[in-house]
Design brief:
Elements lengths: L5 E5 L5 E6 H4 L7 E2 L1 E6 L4 E7 L10 E2 L2 E3 L7 H13 L6 E5 L3 E5 L5 E5 L2 E5 L11 E8 H9 L7 H11 L22
Length: about 190
Amino acid sequence: MTHDERVVLLNARGESIGTAPKATVHGADTPLHLAFSCYVFDPEGRVLLSRRASHKLTWPGVWTNSVCGHPLPGESPAEAVTRRLSHELGLTAHAVELMLPAFAYRAVMEDGTVENEMCPVYRAVVSEEPRPNPDEVGGVRWMPWKDFGHDVAGGLLAISPWAVEQVPQLEALGPDPLTWAPADPAELPPAAR
């Protein structure tokens, strides 16, 4: 992250109401803003999990989905996914496809720091091994999707609060993540279209 990276602030309808420096957004009164999550799969349908770097402001050291982040002003979430996959994991996706256009969540860390995001969820498929950037990622591991879903549902895997909410919605799309039908981009928040 550069010191002047900005996030897109949103109203309750998902419309842009301005921008703010990323470094100042997350706190006890985090405003609603635009983000994304992406689940990366290999050709066998395994999902790539990543552990957030221990110096991250929000959920440091926590295991989560493959990559998360914030679109820059004027950047689509799909473009942001491609940018962050390269930066965080050294990956190039064959395709970045929208799965959950209207996902949103609010979560509070033990120290009172709040995440408050409209966060469309994407699927990407790769055929290469990740090369994690230690500034962003503390570790990675591949896991069969079925096992991952089972462990999240059973509380057997300590995972980010957004992934806990996203996984059941993704599982509802079908048992094989490689055959999920992409969602309609018209269902994205207006600021993400």
